[in-house]
Amino acid sequence: MTEASRPEPQQLRRSLEAADLRVLLMVLFHMTGDGKWLEPPYRPVRDVTLIADPAAGFSEDVQAQIRQAAFEVLSAGKAPALRDPGDETMVRMMTACLSERVPPEYAGMMREEVGFIPRFVDWTPGFDAAAALRERKLRVGIVGAGAAGITIGSNLLELGVDFTIFEKGPDVGGTWREHRYPGCGVDTPNHAYSFSFGSRYSWSRYFSTREQIQDYMRGIAAETGVVRHVELNTLVRGARWNDDEATWSVEVEGPDGRRTETFDVLVSAIGQLSKPWRMPIRGEETFPGAIFHPMHWPDGLAYEDKRVAVVGSGATSMQIVSEICDKVEKLTIYQRTPQWARPIPKYHDEISEDQQWLLREVPFYAEWFRLTMLWRYGDGLLPTLRKDPDWPHPARSVNMTNERHRIDMERYIEQELEGRPDLLAKSIPPYPPYGKRILLDAGWYAALRRDNVELVTERIDHIDGSAVVTADGRRREADIVVVSTGYDVNSLTSQLDVRGVGGVDLRDVWGPDDPHAYKSAAVPGFPNLFIIYGPNTGLAHGGSAIFMDECGARYVADFIRVMVEDGIRTVEATPEATQAYTRRVDEEHASLVWTSPELNSYYRNSKGRVTSANPWRLVDYWRLVHEADPENYAIGYLDEQERRRVGTTG
Fold first, then answer.
1. Structure pTM?
2. How crowded is residue 39: how many other Cβ atoms within 10 Å of its Cβ?
3. In the chain, where the domains are located
């Protein structure tokens, strides 16, 4: 249904019965401009559940009023009274829709997120970008064609900047191409875990499988045209900064062999989950069956009616176990540390055809449906994760609200494992909730109760032939061993063999596990190198990783704009700015749950410093990197003759 079309009445009536009424109220306001839809009696009940009740707490009479008004307005086929609300009205609408006070600083971020205003960077009005780019011939090299690579590529296409994306695999999609294990899917609702640009995808479920997400990534790359700039099956072997030419020499290996490409700017768009870490097990070479990390799940692996061992109990393990537990003969889970997991009603629910029709056809419905998902998965949790210095039980929780979360989740686990004190003793984590990545229970506790499932907490000592042997000497036979022990989240860009000014190796700057960067995006000594989803951008309190990719990509794109417009040859984050930013990150983390005493997680490095998790509210990070800040960089300009040639003044 376009803004001026008239839907088929029967279809509209039926679909409105399935509508989320808080969202429908925003549609009514857009279409009519009538402020009554933002005031009582049309104020929803606040609902912070992950998939909220579509009735929004309204009486049947008020529900009928809203649906009838929507039917009449949408049947009329008129153009909307309001498209982009602007900041002030956006806050008013969000406050009404969500039934809570929304701080004004969220207006711009959310207007971008739902597409009321573009997030992409544009040239300064009056600047002849085409002429400048034609003369300068600036080239950008990008490593990785996952969500981050697609995002920065889309930004550069909008600017008209020449770029090439090198992708080591046979398709775009990043982690969603790489991971093919049973049960693989997203743990953020897809209407939040999606791009702010491109066509709205018709997700079949609230939480989609990796096949759907990979299809979406592929579709957006094609729609935007990014795919035409991707070299598949091409591995970046190394990158060297040329001090004299002020360019990057990037060595790549593809189907036609090795070659070296030269770029003015290099962008690392590889993700934190791109390099698996597999715990070595003594004696594993004697195992006669398949033994592998989930990222390397063999195509066509027959696990049905087999004895399967899963080492680890994190997010990936939970998805695998929930999916295969009823298909295998025996499933043995080797757990080092129990995890906190939240119940997710509707996790497996499909989105009905009537709901799909609303999202696809009704103006502004998909935008506000997305906004409500983003908000519930956003910043609301972060204030509850701050340490109370006077809290008497810091080992189990960090404040009163965190303790309440603990009690609620303990009760849920007790309910799920009722009558199984043996499992309960193994399943209550000793650390504060959210101290490690919070997980979603999509069938984990139900799986643990099965007769063919065993949860082992004794440490694995070694493998002896087809047996996994624990420290107590017990032998458990297995046909398949899945070593689900996580990822190397600290090597990031350094795994690319990047050499900066004077040949300095990024691996030496960061060491084995201490990555740090100015605004997570730039490192002193590495001019014209930008990182998307770099150190301290992992989301541990909520939100969408794609949101962080888009924030980082906009920052990079805006820097490239500034470089072209101002005749800048090189930009390099200063040591002073980088050290100051790193101190801010560390100081912020010192007050948050992830630095709780005795807590060991992949968020922290070997020295206890949090290197992965983002300490900021989403809106703070969005604001932090929304525009380039060359004042915090060492700048090298083109010479006067070159500036005149490319039409800039410096």
1. 0.95
2. 10
3. 9-119+354-379, 129-275+489-646, 284-347+393-483
